[in-house]
TrEMBL record, chain A:
It comes from Poseidonocella sedimentorum. The lineage of its organism: Bacteria, Pseudomonadati, Pseudomonadota, Alphaproteobacteria, Rhodobacterales. The keyword Membrane applies. One of its GO terms (biological process) is transmembrane transport. This is Carbohydrate ABC transporter membrane protein 2, CUT1 family. The chain crosses the membrane at residues 23-44, 97-117, 126-150, 162-182, 203-228, 264-282. Belongs to the binding-protein-dependent transport system permease family.
Automatic annotation (TrEMBL), chain B:
PROSITE patterns: ABC_TRANSPORTER_1, ABC_TRANSPORTER_2. GO terms for biological process: carbohydrate transport. This is Carbohydrate ABC transporter ATP-binding protein, CUT1 family. The keyword Transport applies. It comes from the Bacteria. One of its GO terms (cellular component) is ATP-binding cassette (ABC) transporter complex, substrate-binding subunit-containing. Residues 7-237 form the ABC transporter domain. It comes from Poseidonocella sedimentorum. InterPro entries: AAA+_ATPase, ABC_transporter-like_ATP-bd, ABC_transporter-like_CS, ABC_transpr_MalK-like, ABC_transpr_MalK/UgpC-like, Mo/tungstate-bd_C_term_dom, NA-bd_OB-fold, OB_MalK-like. One of its GO terms (molecular function) is ABC-type transporter activity. CDD domains: ABC_MalK_N. Keywords: ATP-binding, Nucleotide-binding, Transport. Belongs to the ABC transporter superfamily. The keyword Ribonucleoprotein does not apply.
Length: 298, 363
C-alpha cells in the first residue's frame, strides 16, 4: 500500500503549450484582434502622412515622413461652413455638454435607484415600470415633441437644453442600473442604519455611497461615452455655435468643398474618439468589477 | 421578571401583499425579561421583530414600548437596539465609527460618545479592535461589535435576530454564555429570535413558540419542556423528539390503548377530568423512558426489543419496538445494548403528555 504512493503521476499535471487546442485558440484570438485593430492602424498611419504620400495609395504602409500637421489642422484650423477654427470649438462644447449631463444624470438616477431599492414607497413598482417602459420607446418618436418643449422653455439650441435632454434620456437605464446594485447590497445594513437613526439622505450619503464606487464608475463610463458619442441629439437640439464635437467632425469629414484631406479627417476622427478611449483605459478595471458586482444581476 | 411590562403588542396584523404573515398577535413582555421567539424557518419570527423595531409597517394593531405607543414612531425613536444575523456592520467605517454612528446621528456630544464607546468596548472586550475595519475582524468579533452598536445607545429593549447562527458551534456556545451574563449585568429587556432550541432553553426567561405567524405557547423553558400546551410544541422541543402514539382513551379514561400497547394513566396529571372513549395521542420523551433497575419498579413497565443503537458519547440513543410500535429511548452513554436485546422499560407518566387527537391540545 505504502509503495503505491511512490509510483505513477505526482504533483501538477504537465501542460503542453503547443497542443492543438492551444494553437487553435490563440490563433483565432490573434486573427480576431488583427481584424479589429486593422482599421485603427490605417487611421493612425494615414493621419501621420502628408497628402502627397497618401495619393500614392498604399494605405497599409507606415508613413515615410511623419508629420503632425494634419492633427494640428484638425484641431485648430479645419473649416466647417463659415467657421475655420477646427474641432477645438466642438471639443469644448462637448466638454460643456458631457460634464454637467453626466453629473446630473448620475446624481438623479442614483437617488432614484436608492429610493426604489430601499424605500419601497407606495407606487414604487408602478413608477419603476413606467420608467423602464420609457427605455424601450424609440428616440426618434420623441425628437419633435422635445423640440417643442425646449422651444417653449426657451432652451432650444442651447447647451442647457441639450444637457437636459441627455439627463432625461439617461434616466431609465441608469435608474435600473442603480436600483439593481442597491438591491444587491445587504438589506440588513439599511435596517441597521435606520435603527441607528439615519434618515433618507444620511443613509444615502454615509452608508450607500461609500459602498457603491464600482457602480458609479460603470454609470460614468456609460454616460461619458454615450453622451460624448451622441450625434442625433446634438445635431437636432443645437446650432452651429453650440455643435458638439461629433457633429463638427461630421461636417469636417463631409465638407464638399476642395480636395478630401484624408489625413486631416483621420486625425479629427481619432481626436474625437480619444475621450471615451481614455475613459476606458483609466477605469476599465473598475468597470469590469462593477459589472461583476451586481450591475447585471436581476 | 419584573411586574412592569416593557413591550406590549396588541392585535398585530402584518401581511406582504396577499400573504398574511402575522395574524392578530398579542404579546406582553416584562421589563428586564429575556424573551426568546422560537420557531421553524418562515414562521414569522424576523417579521415580528422587524415590526417591533419599526422596520416594517404593520397593517393593524398597536405596539407599546415602555408604556409609550410607538406604533407610528421611527425605529430610532422607539428606544430599541437591534442586532442582525449578518452583523450588518458598516463596511467603510472603523469599529469605533460603527459604534458611534447612532450617537452621531442623535447629535450626542463628542465627549459623551467617547465615554459610551469606551464603556461598551470594555464590556464586550473589543477595545483593541476599535480602529479596525469590519473586514479585518473574525465572525465572533463582528458580532460583538454589532452588539456594541446596540449597547452604546443605552436603549431599554434589545432585539436580536439569530445573532449567533453564523458562528461555529464552539464560538456560539461561548457567546451564548456571554449574552446571558450581559443580560444579568444590564437588566434590559431582550427579545431574541432563534431556531436553536438549546439557545432558547438556556437563555430565555420565557419562550414564545411560533408557528405560521401565531404564538403556540408562551411559557418558561421548564414549562414548555415538561408541559407542552399542544402537540406542535411537544414535537418541536426536545432532541431527539418525543415519541407519539395515536390511540384512544378507554371508556373510564383510565387507560391509553393503541392496539396491544396499553398504558394505565393513573399517574398522568390530567388538567381536568376527561371523558373517555375518544381518540388521543400519547407523547413520551426518549429521556423519560426508564431503564435498568428503575424500569422494574415503575408503575408502567413493559418489555422492548432493541432494533438500532446510536452511541452519542454522553448518552446512547436506542431505537426499539414495544408492542409492535417504534420507541426511541435515551440511555446512559456507557449502556451496553446491542440490536436484538430485550430491554425492560418503564414509562414515567408524570412527565408524559396526552393530546386530544383533533384539537391537538394537551389534556
Ligand atoms: N419582503 C417579503 N415579501 C414577501 N414575503 C415575505 C417577505 N419577508 C418575509 N416574507 C414571508 O414571511 C414569512 C415569515 O418570514 P420571516 O422572515 O419572518 O421568517 P422567520 O421566522 O424569520 O424565518 P427564518 O428562521 O428562516 O429567519 C415567510 O413565509 C416569508 O416567505
Ligand atoms: Mg428570520
Amino acid at each position: 500500500m505504502a509503495d503505491l504512493a511512490l509510483s505513477g503521476p505526482a504533483g501538477p499535471r504537465p501542460k503542453n503549450r503547443f497542443s492543438r487546442a492551444n494553437i487553435f485558440i490563440y490563433g483565432t484570438l490573434l486573427l480576431v484582434s488583427v481584424y479589429y485593430l486593422l482599421p485603427l492602424y490605417v487611421m493612425v498611419v494615414t493621419s501621420l502622412k502628408g497628402m502627397p504620400e497618401i495619393r500614392l495609395g498604399n494605405i497599409f504602409s507606415p508613413p515615410v515622413d511623419i508629420t503632425f500637421e494634419p492633427w494640428i489642422k484638425a484641431w485648430s484650423s479645419a473649416c466647417t461652413g463659415l467657421n475655420c477654427d477646427g474641432l477645438s470649438r466642438g471639443f469644448w462644447n462637448s466638454v460643456r455638454i458631457t460634464i454637467p449631463s453626466v453629473i446630473l444624470s448620475i446624481a438623479v438616477a442614483s437617488v432614484n435607484g436608492y429610493a426604489l431599492a430601499n424605500w419601497r414607497f407606495r407606487g414604487a413598482d408602478l413608477f419603476f415600470t413606467i420608467l423602464i417602459f420609457g427605455a424601450f420607446i424609440p428616440y426618434q418618436v420623441m425628437i419633435w415633441p422635445i423640440v417643442i418643449l425646449l422651444r417653449e422653455m426657451g432652451l432650444y439650441t442651447t447647451l442647457t437644453g441639450l444637457v437636459l435632454v441627455h439627463t432625461i434620456f439617461g434616466m431609465p437605464i441608469l435608474t435600473l442600473l442603480f436600483r439593481n446594485y442597491f438591491t444587491s447590497l445587504p438589506e440588513e445594513l439599511f435596517k441597521a442604519a435606520r435603527v441607528d437613526g439615519a434618515g433618507f439622505w444620511g443613509i444615502y450619503f454615509r452608508i450607500m455611497l461609500p459602498m457603491s464606487l464600482p457602480i458609479f464608475v460603470v454609470a460614468m463610463i456609460l454616460q461619458v461615452t454615450g453622451i460624448w458619442n451622441d450625434f442625433l441629439f446634438g445635431v437636432v437640439y443645437t446650432k452651429p455655435d453650440t455643435y458638439p464635437m461629433t457633429v463638427q467632425l461630421n461636417n469636417i469629414v463631409n465638407s464638399v468643398q476642395g480636395v478630401k484631406e484624408y489625413n486631416v479627417n483621420m486625425a479629427a476622427t481619432l481626436l474625437t474618439g480619444l475621450v471615451p478611449l481614455i475613459i476606458y483605459f483609466v477605469s476599465g478595471k473598475l468597470f469590469v468589477r462593477g459589472i461583476a458586482a451586481g450591475a447585471v444581476k436581476g | 421578571m419584573a411586574d412592569q411590562t416593557s413591550v406590549s403588542i396588541r392585535n398585530l396584523d402584518l401581511s406582504f401583499g396577499a400573504v398574511e404573515v402575522l395574524k392578530d398577535l398579542n404579546l406582553d413582555i416584562g421589563a428586564g425579561e429575556f424573551l426568546v421567539l422560537l420557531g421553524s424557518s418562515g414562521c414569522g419570527k424576523s417579521t415580528l421583530l422587524n415590526c417591533i423595531a419599526g422596520l416594517l409597517e404593520i397593517n393593524a394593531g398597536q405596539i407599546h414600548i415602555n408604556g409609550r405607543n410607538v406604533t407610528w414612531e421611527e425605529p430610532s425613536a422607539r428606544g430599541i437596539g437591534m442586532v442582525f444575523q449578518s452583523y450588518a456592520l458598516y463596511p467603510q467605517m472603523t469599529v469605533r465609527g460603527n459604534l458611534s454612528f447612532g450617537l452621531r446621528n442623535a447629535r450626542v456630544p463628542k465627549a459623551e460618545i467617547a465615554r459610551r464607546v469606551k464603556e461598551a468596548a470594555e464590556i464586550l472586550q473589543i477595545e483593541p479592535l476599535l480602529d479596525r475595519k469590519p473586514a479585518a475582524l473574525s465572525g465572533g468579533q463582528r458580532q460583538r461589535v454589532a452588539i456594541g452598536r446596540a449597547l452604546v445607545r443605552h436603549v431599554d429593549v434589545f432585539l436580536f435576530d439569530e445573532p449567533l447562527s453564523n458562528l461555529d458551534a464552539k464560538l456560539r456556545a461561548d457567546l451564548r454564555v456571554e449574552l446571558k451574563r450581559l443580560h444579568d449585568r444590564l437588566g434590559n429587556t431582550m427579545i431574541y429570535v432563534t431556531h436553536d432550541q438549546i439557545e432558547a432553553m438556556t437563555l430565555a426567561d420565557r419562550i414564545a413558540i411560533m408557528r405560521g405567524g401565531r404564538i403556540m405557547q408562551l411559557a418558561s423553558p421548564g414549562e414548555i419542556y415538561n408541559r407542552p400546551a399542544n402537540r406542535y410544541v411537544a414535537d418541536f422541543i426536545g432532541s431527539p423528539s418525543m415519541n407519539f402514539y395515536e390511540g384512544h382513551l378507554t371508556q373510564d379514561a383510565q387507560v391509553f390503548e393503541s392496539g396491544d400497547f396499553r398504558v394505565p394513566l393513573a399517574a398522568y396529571p390530567f388538567d381536568s377530568a376527561q371523558p373517555g372513549g375518544r381518540p388521543v395521542t400519547l407523547g413520551i420523551r426518549p429521556e423519560h423512558v426508564l431503564t435498568g433497575p428503575m424500569a422494574k419498579t415503575a408503575p408502567v413497565a413493559m418489555g422492548a426489543t432493541v432494533e438500532m443503537v446510536e452511541p452519542m458519547g454522553s448518552d446512547t440513543l436506542v431505537w426499539a419496538r414495544v408492542a409492535g410500535l417504534p420507541l426511541r429511548l435515551r440511555m446512559d452513554g456507557q449502556a451496553a445494548v446491542a440490536p436484538g436485546d430485550q430491554l425492560d422499560i418503564g414509562l414515567d407518566l408524570a412527565r408524559a403528555a396526552l393530546f386530544d387527537a383533533k384539537t391537538e391540545l394537551r389534556l
